[in-house]
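thought: fold this chain, then report.
action: predict
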Amino acid sequence: MRPIQKSKKLADVCYDIRGPVLEKAKQMEEEGHKIIKLNIGNLAVFGFDAPDEIVHDMIINMSNASGYTDSKGMFAPRKAIMHYTQEKHIAGVTIDDIYIGNGASELIVMGMNALLNTGDEVLVPAPDYPLWTAAVSLSGGKPVHYVCDEAADWFPDIEDIKRKITPNTKAIVVINPNNPTGALYPVELLREIVDLARKHQLIVFADEIYDKTLYDGATHTSIASLADDVLFLTLNGLSKNYRSCGYRAGWMVVSGEKKHAKDYIEGLNMLASMRLCANAPGQYAIQTALGGYQSINDLVGPGGRLLKQRDLAHKLLTDIPGVTCVKPKSALYMFPKLDPNMYPIADDQQFAYELLAEEKVLIVQGTGFNWMSPDHFRVVFLPNSDDLTEAFGRIARFLDGYRRRYSKAA
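observation:
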């Protein structure tokens, strides 16, 4: 029979967070191996539970959740999101400017599908959360990666952004707080990005899903709060700040200069209607989450579990010879660098395979985040302290063997 092949639209699409190395890990688990998974920010499996009041509200409203909702979402959660944008000083947001989705991920794809024609370019950070690059490619666009500078706390390189703007550039993606680096951008830098967007009439897509997961007293500024003459699409949700990944409750807020974007917004409305609506049970969690006790502050503040695990993971990593890491100010991840002189890695996916096979530790290679060199990898610091110590001990042992093999070969 004639082979059935995947669409050519998927040729440039990859999502290595759930890629081939994970498939190998699943196979090993089926064979009876216990894998320490540092590959994905799935909080529940590490004992980070959703707040009780969110769970309670979903349960008591379940009998009301069997019907379709408005294609943009229920009124009450959208009103709560509108109030949240006011707290973040994002001006001029109405109920109609808010779209609730099955997680922010669905809305990222929707935002790109509604915008891009073949050959349109979107500026995406490197490293990035790879769904952004995949969504641009799947929508027929061309992702153009601007560099975030590790030597400057992983801040975007403004000069590199300027060099990569062309007449085909339609938008710029800003991931702040950042996944995978944990960087948190200062207001001055955000203003420079807004100035470029204004000058070149770019849409700003702002991924702010970790805006409450902040350490050391840091504060977050929404880039959409800095201007009203640029079009912003700000994405957020319950997955991370409220430990509710499986509820798939995210939102997208359109703000700023909307008059010239009527046709694009009509496209967003069409796509929102085509998927009928976001899941209703998850929508019932939003109002309670945003208006309730912000327990994330207990986790990231002094003595909090996430703060302690960040500090422990950073120390364990940077104690390994040839491993450096910018200490994250936000989010759940670290993006350490391996000294290429000590670890001459040609294929970082193969490196991740070998670590998995030898030490039963699952990571994601740096090129999976569209980083240009095979010298980084991403880990989560969600496991408890004992498991983190075990995991990084195994990584240290593997890297020690790697150095020894290389020194003998040299």
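thought: worth noting. The chain has a mean pLDDT of 95.
final: tokens above.
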